[in-house]
């Protein structure tokens, strides 16, 4: 079997073909990330490197239908997946949990509704689960608030 490693800048991530969903997906901690299947590693794998970039995927896979957006919002009870804020009161962003630049997948399992603050803080980082993102976003927003509170002190001293 040939092992493919996708290169994103200087970072290499293993990609394998999933027998269940018939797509390529990342292998992280020996688990195929699309269907959570465990992968047996053998030392005899040949390594083939493949350069990937977001521009090679184009924009065709990024479009999310209104039907899918409504399904995601209803499934999440109109709450941000990361901080829980009511999405009726803010603009909802539809975030690829595993960034589109890594896996061009806009299906329900990879999409979440998030408030703009959480979506922008998460950016294109990869997390194991929603709880990790929630913790990360909370810590980042607390640091931002602390910096905003210090800002007027510096301005008044100048």
Q: What would you note in describing this structure?
A:
The protein is of the alpha+beta class and 158 residues long. The protein has 2 domains: 2-53, no CATH class; 62-157, Orthogonal Bundle (DNA Binding (I), subunit A). Helix content is 31%, strand content 25%. The protein has helices at residues 54-57, 66-75, 116-122, 130-157, and strands spanning 2-8, 11-17, 24-28, 31-32, 37-38, 46-51, 92-96, 111-115. The strands form 2 sheets. The chain has a 6-stranded mixed beta sheet with strand order 5-4-3-2-1-6, with no helix packed on it.
Largest sheet: 6 strands, mixed
Q: Give the helix level as a range of percent.
A: 25-40%
Globally, the shape reads globular
**Annotated CATH topology of the largest domain:** DNA Binding (I), subunit A
Number of structurally distinct domains:
2
Beta-sheet strand percentage? 15-25%
Q: What is the correct CATH architecture of the largest domain?
A: Orthogonal Bundle
Distance between the termini: 65 Å
Tell how many strands the DSSP assignment holds: 8
Question: Structural class of the helix and strand makeup?
Answer: alpha+beta
Adjacency order of strands in the biggest sheet: 5-4-3-2-1-6
Average predicted local confidence, pLDDT:
77
Main CATH class of the largest domain? Mainly Alpha
| Low-pLDDT segments, ≥5 res | 53-60
Q: Topology as H/E string?
A: EEEEEEHHEEHH
Work out the helix count: 4
Round the Cα radius of gyration to an integer and report it. 19 Å
């Amino acid at each position: 079997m040939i092992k493919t490693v996708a290169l994103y800048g200087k970072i290499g991530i293993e990609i394998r073909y999933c027998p269940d969903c018939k797509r390529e997906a990342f292998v992280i901690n020996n688990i195929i990330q699309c269907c959570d299947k465990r992968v047996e590693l053998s030392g005899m794998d040949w390594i083939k490197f493949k350069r990937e970039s977001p521009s090679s995927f184009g924009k065709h896979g990024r479009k999310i239908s209104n039907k899918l957006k409504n399904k995601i919002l209803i499934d999440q009870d109109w709450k941000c997946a990361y901080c829980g804020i009511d999405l009726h009161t803010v603009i909802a962003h539809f975030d690829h949990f595993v960034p589109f630049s890594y896996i061009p997948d806009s299906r329900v399992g990879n999409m979440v509704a998030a408030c703009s603050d959480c979506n922008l803080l998460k950016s294109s980082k990869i997390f194991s689960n929603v709880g990790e993102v929630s913790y990360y976003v909370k810590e980042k927003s607390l640091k931002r608030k602390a910096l905003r509170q210090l800002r007027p002190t510096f301005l008044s001293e100048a």
